[in-house]
Amino acid sequence: MSTQTVTIARLGAQGDGIAQTEAGPVYAPFTLPGETVALAVNKAHGTLMSLKEPSPDRVEPKCRHFGPDGVNGACGGCTLQHASDDLYHAFKRNLVIDALKSKGLTPDVAPLVVAHPGERRRVVFTARRTEKEMLLGFNQAESHHIVAISECPISGPGIVSRLATIRKIAAAMASSAEPFRITVLETNAGLDLAFEGIKLADRQRRLTVETVLGERGIARVSLNGEIIVEPVKPVIDFGSVTVSPPPGSFTQATRPAEEAMAKLVLEHVGKAKHVADLFSGIGTFALRIAQRARVHAVEGDDKALKALDFAARNTQGLKPVTIERRDLFRRPLMVQELKSYDAVVFDPPRAGAEAQCHELARSGVKKIAAVSCNPVTLARDLAILTAAGYRITSVTPIDQFLWSAHVEAVATLEKPQRAFP
User: Fold this and answer.
1) Does the pLDDT of residue 31 top 50, yes or no?
2) How confident is the model at residue 416 (pLDDT cuts 50, 70, 90)?
3) DSSP letter string over 336-384?
4) In what order do the strands lie in the sheet with 180-187?
5) Within 10 Å of residue 201's Cβ, how many Cβ atoms?
6) Of the residues 63, 78, 357, 373, which is catalytic?
7) Annotated catalytic, 373?
8) What is the pLDDT of residue 73?
9) Among 72, 52, 71, residue whose Cα is nearest residue 61
10) Which residue among 24, 29, 64, 249 is least enclosed by CB atoms within 10 Å?
C-alpha cells in the first residue's frame, strides 16, 4: 500500500471517482471529477485520506452516516450524497446513454426523472444481535460491518419514524448473533416486514407475535415467505386497483418512480386492445393497463401471479385479465403466441429479457415498452429488437434509488408498417 496524490478524472459506473495512475486506474469512493486528493492505494482501490482541492460540485451530505467519517462507519446505502444535483443527475442519465452507445444505439435520451429524499417505501436493512444491542442498518460497502443508523434521508417518514419498532421486532426474532435481512415495505395498512436468514425457535415465534401485537403501525411480519403474524392485510395501490403483495414480493422502491414508469408505458400502449405484460410481477403495469385493454399477464412467481389475479377478479370495471405462470427465461412467448397482441410490455429482473426479445424481434407486435433496472441488459435487448426493424421512439431514465449508482429506464419501440404499392 502506498499514499499518492492524484486528480480524479471521472466517475465510474458504481459512483467511485477514477484516477489514472502509472499503474492503471484507481477507484476511490467519496471523490468527484476534478478533485485533487491524497489516497491510500492498494492495487486498484484508493481510500480517501485527505481532500486537497475539492470540486465545486461537492456538497454537504444529507446524512451523518454517509462518507468515510460517517457515524458508526461509512454506510453503504448511498454512494453519491457528496455530489451536486447537476453532477449526480448527469451521471445517472449517462449510465443509460453509455450503455446504449456500447451497442451502437444513439437514440435521444430524455432528462432524468429525478428522485427526492423521503420517497423510498421499500428498504432492505441488515440486522444482527450483539451482546450489547440490536444492530439495524446497512452494510458498509464491500464489508460485513453493519452501520447502525438512527436516520435515513432516502426512506419515507413512515419507515424512519418506526426504526425503534423495527429494531424491537428484530430483537424478538433473533436467536443468535448471525446477521439477517429485513425488507421493509410501507403499505396503506402499515409496515410489512419480511425477514430472511433466521431460524425461528418456538420461543422467538411467540415473542415476535406478542411484540407485534403490542405495537402500532405493523401490518405483517413474515419469515422466508411464511406469515408469522398479520394484524392487518398489507395493501398497495396500482392506479385504482388495490393489491395485497405476498410476503417479500418485489415492488418498485418508490411510488413516484412507479407512477412515472406506468405513465410512459400507458401512453405508449395507447389504444391497443390486447396487451401482453411479461414478467408482470404482482401487476404494476397489467392492472393499470386493464382499465382500458385486455391483458395477458405472464410471470414465473406463482404467489405474485395469484395476488395479481385476486386483485383483478375483485376490482370492478376492468377489462378481462388472464394469467399464465411461465419461466420466460427458459420458455419465452413464441412468435405464434405473440400474434394476438398489438402491444407488449416487459419488465424483467437485472438479467434482462434476451430470449424473449429474440422472439419479439421475429414477431409483428406493433408496440413494445421495455422497462429495465439494468442499462447494460436493456441495451443488449434493444439492440436485438432494432436489428429486426424496430425503431426506438423514446428512452427515459428514472431514478428511484437516490444517491446510488442504480438507474431505471423505460424504452418504447414501434415496428414500422410495410407500405404496399
Assistant:
1) yes
2) confident
3) HHHTT-SEEEE---TT--HHHHHHHHTS--SEEEEEES-HHHHHHHHHH
4) 146-148, 134-139, 122-129, 180-187, 190-196, 218-223, 226-229
5) 12
6) 373
7) yes
8) 86
9) 71
10) 24
